[in-house]
Amino acid sequence: MGILILLEFVLHAVNDVYIDLLQHRSLSRCVNASLKQFKLVCVVQDLQSWCHERSEVEIVDMVLRLREKLNLVNEHKLDVPPQIAAMISLQLDTITHSLPEDLRGILLKS
Fold first, then answer.
1. Of the residues 41, 78, 96, 106, which has the fewest C-beta atoms closer than 10 A?
2. What integer is the mean pLDDT of 46-72?
């Protein structure tokens, strides 16, 4: 009889640990998604002043990375509100058109 009680206690304890783990993972995913969204907003809001301090190579690299993020948003792999996606797209267009003609042509083709 004592063994059954002990076994039941252990099974409940393992179940509780598993539930806590699932809740932690869920919370962690939510926090990570919010953090990614916040980073995108911060980068985009200060993108033009950031570009004034950078070389063309760094600017092109940032444009390509932000385009990748927009593709993830469009494929619903990154949860970002449509307003933020539109703001990113508008900033990318502004930055792309501020680049020299040769770089602009390459970026617009890709």
1. 106
2. 84
